[in-house]
Specification:
By secondary structure, the chain is of the alpha/beta class. It has five helices and six strands. A six-stranded mixed sheet has the order 1-2-3-4-5-6, with helices on both faces.
């Protein structure tokens, strides 16, 4: 269960608000929209990480079309979006991110696999500057997740140095 039940999620949002947290990150799955766990919720920034046949099954989505419609609800309920590997245009501020792509706003360049994790650079569209990052987690998908988080950070005005320092200290156990 990636997205808590609606009452639990609202309690978590309230706790964050009561503690003065300016931002909160929540994983909102396509299934959360399918079963209305986030009904009526609006997000400042939605992140669309991937779209593949992994979620087509009797327990999840019956078809790719159904899956896409559920995934697109996140973008419909977000003011801005960071999108990995999707190039569709939406009627809101969108940041496209990708791996070694010249058609994205943020692009990962020069990935080096380390004993544990990766070293890579992020380049912004229209700039020659390469911003160094280190990620202490294995799995190519973690680079994509980090790039999506960097995209959100840039939308919120964070500098690359701040985000690089935060990612350098981050390690998430499990998935």
């Amino acid at each position: 269960l990636t997205t808590p039940e609606s009452l639990d999620l609202q309690w978590l949002f309230a706790q964050a608000w009561d503690h003065g947290l300016p931002y909160m990150t929540a994983e909102v799955s396509s299934q959360a929209y399918q079963v209305e766990r986030v009904y009526g919720e609006h997000f400042d920034i939605g992140v669309f990480l991937n779209f593949s046949e992994d979620h087509i099954s009797p327990k999840e989505h019956a078809s790719m079309e159904e899956y896409l419609q559920c995934k697109l609800q996140l973008l419909e309920n977000s003011g801005r979006a960071v999108i990995c590997r999707e190039t569709a245009q939406f009627d809101r501020e969108v940041m496209l991110v990708g791996m070694n792509r010249d058609d994205c706003d943020l692009t990962v360049r020069q990935v080096e696999k380390l004993t544990h994790g990766f070293r890579f650079f992020v380049q912004e569209r229209g700039s020659e500057a390469l911003h160094p990052y280190h990620l202490a987690m294995d799995g190519d998908f973690n680079i994509e997740n980090a790039l999506a988080a960097i995209g959100v950070g840039r939308m919120l005005g964070a500098e690359h140095e701040q985000m690089a320092a935060a990612l350098d200290a981050l390690e998430v156990p499990g998935r």
